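Q: Can I see a sequence and its folded structure?
A: Here is a first one.
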Amino acid sequence: MDFLSHRPGEAHCRDMSWRGHWQTIVPRILQRTPRDLPVRRLWETSLVDERVGRVAVRGRYSEGSGGPGPCILLHGLGGSPDSPYVLDTQAALHAAGRSVLALALRGTLGPPDDFYHAGLTADLERAIEALAAETGRKVDVIGFSLGGHVALRLALDPPEALGRVVTVCAPLDLRACCQTLDRRRSWIYRRHVLSGLKAHYRALAERGPVPTPWERIRRVRRIVEWDQLSVVPRFGFRDTDDYYRQCSVGPELERLKPPVWMVIGAVDPMVPLETLRSFLGRLPRNAEVLLDPGGGH
């Protein structure tokens, strides 16, 4: 099937929609901590942010037995290095001999000194440089959902030490995905994501000044509202439209430099295929797409 041009019928869409929800929700209910999860130690470095000063870059690191170079895993919006899909992937890569860093998006592991957004690549770049210096090898990156978007943004202007990039269910159009999450029928995903975001924000507010008081953030019910009250003032965007326009990686995919492999779920309810079609034709020859016909998010 040519998924760039195929348009399924209405009845088929309804059936696939339910399959997408099933494939997204049920695996989370059934997920358990993998029995073969390796020992993971706290890994930490830092960088200087021009607005807030020195911030920590943290993750959970497991030492491999040799073979290919290290790999960084980057979780999704509202997640953490302890998210089940991160643990599963770290266990699988460790079994294959890889050293793995489950990197925390800013402020999601340990005492927070800031928070993140979809275009913030500095922490990932710093982690790549530090791991490359430690191991003498190039560093591959696997990014999930928003973490995949961050990885793609860095791949537009990559550090020399970046090896290959794999993304799983990465959004390409931030505005479109925000609108999807803010629909009434997406309430279960929205609640899950906002719960994680709010927990990190509350911990940050308890340590010092924040762009918007916690009591106001606590009442946020939509993703666009979260972005407007937290990301926009903290990172100097004019409004959410400015944030989404500046940071969405879709319009710039032709500039991807390293080898990239994008895994897409055909029935993903959080990053719908319809929000990706217009951008996938921009991919350069070093980028490939794998479409999972039954894959959710």
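Q: Show me another, different protein.
A: A second, unrelated one:
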Amino acid sequence: MKGGKYHRSLFNGKCQVIIQSSKEAGEIKLTATSTNLKPAVATIKTQH
């Protein structure tokens, strides 16, 4: 889902996501947000 939003619920306080990259090199930015918590961002660099 390019540039989209996806909602996931926690299980025992943890969340698992599976990311599939394209055939192009670049960056994947994953942002996690929750009520009463600061957002967390993970940037994953991909290469071909």
